[in-house]
Q: What sequence folds into this?
């Protein structure tokens, strides 16, 4: 077999495995309708968020989806969900980036790295982009 055909075969097998997992019935312990945060995390990052970060603009945490939050340095799916939950607990809005310190898993070092690429509250003016301008549908 050629090396290229091995890679193609591995790709096909991977897609088939994902399709089988997607077709499997949900477990009894899993709610039939996942919470909004879980549904949102399965979507792709918005085009506006990708453009903003690529162009050196700040990402507005008050408008970012969970998938957008995963683009932040050191933020994975679980932390992105905690950030979104904390935002919802605050009425859907962070007053400033300092509010992130209340989120479990965000310490001073992670907050400092997030501050370089994100903003919240009054700190978001012209240098930020609204992810509601997304070219992708959720």
A:
């Amino acid at each position: 077999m050629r090396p290229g055909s091995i890679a193609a075969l591995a790709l096909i097998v991977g897609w088939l495995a994902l399709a089988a997992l997607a077709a499997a019935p949900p477990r009894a312990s899993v709610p039939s309708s996942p919470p909004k945060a879980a549904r949102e995390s399965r979507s792709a990052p918005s085009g506006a968020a990708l453009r903003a970060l690529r162009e050196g603009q700040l990402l507005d945490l008050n408008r970012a989806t969970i998938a957008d939050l995963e683009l932040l340095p050191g933020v994975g799916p679980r932390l992105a969900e905690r950030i979104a939950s904390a935002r919802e607990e605050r009425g859907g809005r962070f007053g400033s980036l300092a509010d992130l310190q209340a989120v479990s898993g965000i310490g001073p070092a992670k907050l400092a790295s997030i501050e370089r690429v994100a903003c919240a509250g009054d700190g978001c003016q012209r240098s930020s982009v609204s992810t509601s301008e997304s070219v992708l549908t959720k």
Q: What stands out?
A: The chain is about 45% helix and 5% strand.
